[in-house]
Amino acid sequence: MPEDSLITDPNGGMPRLREIMRRLRNPQTGCPWDIEQTFATIAPYTIEEAYEVADAIEREAWDELKGELGDLLFQSVFHSQMAEEAGMFTFEDVADTMSDKMVARHPHVFGDESNAKSAQQQTIDWEQTKAAERAAKAQTGALDGVAVGLPALLRAVKLQKRAARVGFDWPETEQVLDKIAEECAELREAHASGDKAHTEEELGDLLFVMANLARHLGIDPEAALRGANAKFTRRFKGIENALKAAGKRPEESDLAEMDALWDAEKRRERQP
């Protein structure tokens, strides 16, 4: 079959990948796992693959990036195949929609507008274009169109940016810091009451304000938290290595010893 030669063609590119996906989803001869998947069951994998791309970039693991980008691309192919089977749209429709969007949002490149603009002005123009697109979809509320399925921290920042555009924002960073102190006090009070639901609510409020602080400081909270995760992992491995050198495992130690080793690891990292 012609399709078989395409599937084994090492230079088959996108046609090869799409034919592989079509064959995987074939109801008679495909893979049972792939056949039974839906948009909802695949969506978590899509999010995971996007984070793995970000992780490879964060670690500057350029030898891994090609594979991670391929995994993410496969997610688009998978969703598009399911949509085509349902008569909704095709992969070509996806590509054409993105192409139309990029051309429309870059009149300074593909149209008559001058491209002699600062990056800041281009960002303003971009947001105005997106606002017009939302209006065309009858999304008139300031927060309309912020995807519910985004990671919570990212969605918090996007919601706050939208609100800030219409003036709902603290003008000074110090006011955000004051709000954090207020939310910490409310969290302590909720925790002391023993009300788990109220404590969860107050913790959410505190996290939301922390995301707002990151926005005011011009810091990506996801990147900051990834950095903190990496630092914690690095320092805890230092604890494990120190204990191993002493012939011990973490479960054979105690908090006081591990805390001292943690401080030693911090001092070691800060040495010039």
CATH superfamily of the domain at 2-103, by name, is MazG-like
Instruction: Predict the CATH topology of the domain at 2-103.
Output: Helix Hairpins
CATH architecture of the domain at 2-103: Orthogonal Bundle
Number of strands: 0
Description:
74% of the residues lie in helices and 0% in strands. Among the domains are: 2-103, Helix Hairpins (Orthogonal Bundle); 106-140; 223-270, no CATH class. It contains 13 helices and no strands. Helix 12 crosses helix 13. It has 272 residues and is mainly alpha-helical. The model has no long low-confidence stretch (mean pLDDT 90). The protein has helices at residues 2-7, 13-24, 32-35, 39-58, 62-85, 91-105, 107-110, 119-136, 152-165, 173-193, 196-217, 221-245, 255-270.
Layout of secondary structure:
Layout: H1 2-7, H2 13-24, H3 32-35, H4 39-58, H5 62-85, H6 91-105, H7 107-110, H8 119-136, H9 152-165, H10 173-193, H11 196-217, H12 221-245, H13 255-270
Helix pairs in contact: 2-5, 4-5, 9-11, 10-11, 12-13
Descriptors for this entry?
272 residues, globular, mainly alpha, 13 helices, Helix Hairpins, single chain
What's the short version?
Helices cover 74% and strands 0% of the residues. The protein has helices spanning 2-7, 13-24, 32-35, 39-58, 62-85, 91-105, 107-110, 119-136, 152-165, 173-193, 196-217, 221-245, 255-270.
